[in-house]
Design goal:
CATH superfamily: 2,3-Dihydroxybiphenyl 1,2-Dioxygenase, domain 1
Largest sheet: 11 strands, mixed
CATH topology: 2,3-Dihydroxybiphenyl 1,2-Dioxygenase, domain 1
CATH architecture: Roll
Number of helices: 5
Length: 183
Protein backbone atom coordinates (compact mmCIF):
# COMPACT_ATOMS: atom_id res chain seq x y z
CA UNK A 1 0.00 0.00 0.00
CA UNK A 2 1.23 3.49 -0.86
CA UNK A 3 0.97 6.04 1.93
CA UNK A 4 0.58 9.83 1.82
CA UNK A 5 4.11 10.32 3.18
CA UNK A 6 5.53 8.11 0.42
CA UNK A 7 3.72 10.23 -2.17
CA UNK A 8 4.24 13.76 -0.80
CA UNK A 9 7.08 13.63 1.72
CA UNK A 10 7.02 14.73 5.33
CA UNK A 11 3.97 16.03 7.14
CA UNK A 12 4.72 19.75 7.26
CA UNK A 13 1.89 21.09 9.41
CA UNK A 14 -0.54 20.09 12.14
CA UNK A 15 -3.71 22.16 11.87
CA UNK A 16 -6.04 22.66 14.82
CA UNK A 17 -9.57 24.04 14.51
CA UNK A 18 -10.70 25.96 17.57
CA UNK A 19 -13.91 27.82 18.42
CA UNK A 20 -13.68 31.45 17.31
CA UNK A 21 -14.23 32.68 20.87
CA UNK A 22 -11.06 30.86 22.00
CA UNK A 23 -8.75 31.74 19.09
CA UNK A 24 -6.47 34.16 21.02
CA UNK A 25 -6.62 32.02 24.16
CA UNK A 26 -5.34 29.06 22.16
CA UNK A 27 -2.47 31.10 20.75
CA UNK A 28 -1.56 32.21 24.27
CA UNK A 29 -1.66 28.61 25.52
CA UNK A 30 0.67 27.42 22.75
CA UNK A 31 3.07 30.32 23.43
CA UNK A 32 3.06 30.42 27.22
CA UNK A 33 2.61 26.75 28.14
CA UNK A 34 4.24 24.99 25.19
CA UNK A 35 6.83 27.58 24.15
CA UNK A 36 5.65 27.63 20.53
CA UNK A 37 6.05 30.94 18.75
CA UNK A 38 6.23 33.55 17.53
CA UNK A 39 2.83 33.51 15.80
CA UNK A 40 1.86 35.00 12.46
CA UNK A 41 -1.85 35.83 12.68
CA UNK A 42 -3.88 36.34 9.50
CA UNK A 43 -7.38 37.62 10.23
CA UNK A 44 -10.19 37.44 7.70
CA UNK A 45 -8.12 36.69 4.57
CA UNK A 46 -9.95 36.86 1.25
CA UNK A 47 -10.64 33.29 0.16
CA UNK A 48 -11.28 32.88 -3.54
CA UNK A 49 -12.81 29.90 -5.35
CA UNK A 50 -14.00 28.36 -2.07
CA UNK A 51 -16.00 25.14 -2.36
CA UNK A 52 -17.18 22.69 0.27
CA UNK A 53 -18.64 19.36 -0.75
CA UNK A 54 -18.85 20.71 -4.30
CA UNK A 55 -20.85 23.82 -3.34
CA UNK A 56 -19.34 27.32 -3.72
CA UNK A 57 -19.45 29.68 -0.78
CA UNK A 58 -17.87 32.55 1.09
CA UNK A 59 -15.56 31.57 3.92
CA UNK A 60 -14.68 33.99 6.73
CA UNK A 61 -11.99 32.70 9.06
CA UNK A 62 -8.71 33.58 10.72
CA UNK A 63 -5.59 31.50 11.19
CA UNK A 64 -2.32 31.67 13.07
CA UNK A 65 0.95 29.96 12.14
CA UNK A 66 4.00 29.15 14.24
CA UNK A 67 6.81 26.66 14.10
CA UNK A 68 7.61 24.03 16.70
CA UNK A 69 11.05 23.15 15.35
CA UNK A 70 10.50 21.72 11.88
CA UNK A 71 6.73 21.24 12.40
CA UNK A 72 4.37 24.08 11.56
CA UNK A 73 1.38 24.52 13.86
CA UNK A 74 -1.77 26.20 12.54
CA UNK A 75 -4.73 27.38 14.59
CA UNK A 76 -7.95 28.08 12.66
CA UNK A 77 -11.16 29.80 13.75
CA UNK A 78 -14.16 30.32 11.49
CA UNK A 79 -16.26 33.47 11.93
CA UNK A 80 -19.29 32.82 9.73
CA UNK A 81 -21.76 29.95 9.37
CA UNK A 82 -20.71 28.97 5.82
CA UNK A 83 -20.67 25.17 5.58
CA UNK A 84 -17.01 24.17 5.69
CA UNK A 85 -14.57 21.53 6.78
CA UNK A 86 -13.95 23.61 9.91
CA UNK A 87 -17.60 23.73 11.03
CA UNK A 88 -18.05 20.05 10.16
CA UNK A 89 -15.07 19.28 12.39
CA UNK A 90 -16.37 21.43 15.27
CA UNK A 91 -19.69 19.58 15.04
CA UNK A 92 -17.84 16.23 15.16
CA UNK A 93 -15.95 17.33 18.29
CA UNK A 94 -19.02 18.77 20.06
CA UNK A 95 -17.69 22.31 19.57
CA UNK A 96 -14.38 21.71 21.32
CA UNK A 97 -12.14 21.46 18.26
CA UNK A 98 -8.76 19.78 18.08
CA UNK A 99 -6.39 18.31 15.53
CA UNK A 100 -8.16 18.90 12.23
CA UNK A 101 -5.56 18.10 9.57
CA UNK A 102 -2.16 16.82 8.61
CA UNK A 103 -0.78 19.02 5.84
CA UNK A 104 1.58 18.13 3.03
CA UNK A 105 3.19 20.71 0.75
CA UNK A 106 3.44 18.90 -2.59
CA UNK A 107 5.43 20.52 -5.37
CA UNK A 108 2.74 19.71 -7.94
CA UNK A 109 -0.74 20.34 -6.54
CA UNK A 110 -2.55 18.87 -9.55
CA UNK A 111 -0.51 15.66 -9.53
CA UNK A 112 -1.03 15.38 -5.77
CA UNK A 113 -4.79 15.80 -6.25
CA UNK A 114 -4.83 12.93 -8.75
CA UNK A 115 -2.81 10.77 -6.36
CA UNK A 116 -5.11 11.60 -3.44
CA UNK A 117 -8.32 10.83 -5.28
CA UNK A 118 -7.20 7.96 -7.52
CA UNK A 119 -4.38 6.16 -5.72
CA UNK A 120 -5.60 6.68 -2.15
CA UNK A 121 -9.36 7.04 -2.66
CA UNK A 122 -9.59 10.31 -0.73
CA UNK A 123 -12.59 12.55 -1.44
CA UNK A 124 -12.11 16.30 -1.94
CA UNK A 125 -13.93 17.94 0.93
CA UNK A 126 -13.09 21.66 0.77
CA UNK A 127 -10.81 23.81 -1.35
CA UNK A 128 -9.97 27.43 -1.98
CA UNK A 129 -7.25 29.93 -2.61
CA UNK A 130 -5.74 32.81 -0.65
CA UNK A 131 -3.79 35.11 -2.96
CA UNK A 132 -2.50 34.21 -6.38
CA UNK A 133 -0.74 31.02 -5.36
CA UNK A 134 -2.16 30.04 -1.97
CA UNK A 135 -4.21 27.03 -3.07
CA UNK A 136 -5.39 24.65 -0.35
CA UNK A 137 -7.38 21.41 -0.54
CA UNK A 138 -8.78 19.23 2.22
CA UNK A 139 -9.48 15.54 1.67
CA UNK A 140 -11.67 13.15 3.61
CA UNK A 141 -10.13 9.83 4.37
CA UNK A 142 -12.57 6.93 4.19
CA UNK A 143 -14.26 5.93 7.40
CA UNK A 144 -12.78 8.66 9.60
CA UNK A 145 -14.90 11.72 10.46
CA UNK A 146 -12.12 13.61 12.25
CA UNK A 147 -8.59 14.46 11.18
CA UNK A 148 -8.17 14.90 7.42
CA UNK A 149 -5.36 15.51 4.91
CA UNK A 150 -4.56 18.94 3.49
CA UNK A 151 -2.51 19.86 0.45
CA UNK A 152 -1.17 23.41 0.56
CA UNK A 153 0.75 25.18 -2.16
CA UNK A 154 3.84 26.34 -0.29
CA UNK A 155 6.56 27.35 -2.75
CA UNK A 156 9.02 30.17 -3.39
CA UNK A 157 8.73 33.19 -1.09
CA UNK A 158 6.12 31.53 1.12
CA UNK A 159 8.40 28.53 1.70
CA UNK A 160 11.33 30.85 2.52
CA UNK A 161 9.17 32.88 4.90
CA UNK A 162 8.17 29.70 6.74
CA UNK A 163 11.84 28.65 6.93
CA UNK A 164 12.68 32.04 8.46
CA UNK A 165 9.82 31.64 10.95
CA UNK A 166 11.15 28.18 11.86
CA UNK A 167 14.58 29.68 12.51
CA UNK A 168 13.07 32.33 14.80
CA UNK A 169 11.14 29.64 16.68
CA UNK A 170 14.36 27.92 17.76
CA UNK A 171 15.21 30.78 20.11
CA UNK A 172 11.66 31.86 21.00
CA UNK A 173 11.33 32.75 24.68
CA UNK A 174 7.70 33.45 25.61
CA UNK A 175 8.80 35.30 28.74
CA UNK A 176 10.83 37.87 26.78
CA UNK A 177 9.95 37.77 23.07
CA UNK A 178 6.95 39.19 21.26
CA UNK A 179 4.40 36.42 20.72
CA UNK A 180 3.27 37.86 17.39
CA UNK A 181 5.09 38.68 14.16
CA UNK A 182 3.96 40.63 11.13
CA UNK A 183 4.70 39.82 7.53
Amino acid sequence: MTTPTQLWGDIRQLGYVVPAATFRTNIEHWARMLGVGPWLVIEHPVVEDFVHRGQPGTLDFSFALAQAGSMQIELIAQHNDQPSTYLDFLATTNGIGGLHHLAYWPEDMDAAHEQATRALGFALWSAGRIGADGTFRYYLTEGHPGTVVEHANVQGRRLQYFADLAERSRTFDPAHDDWYVTR
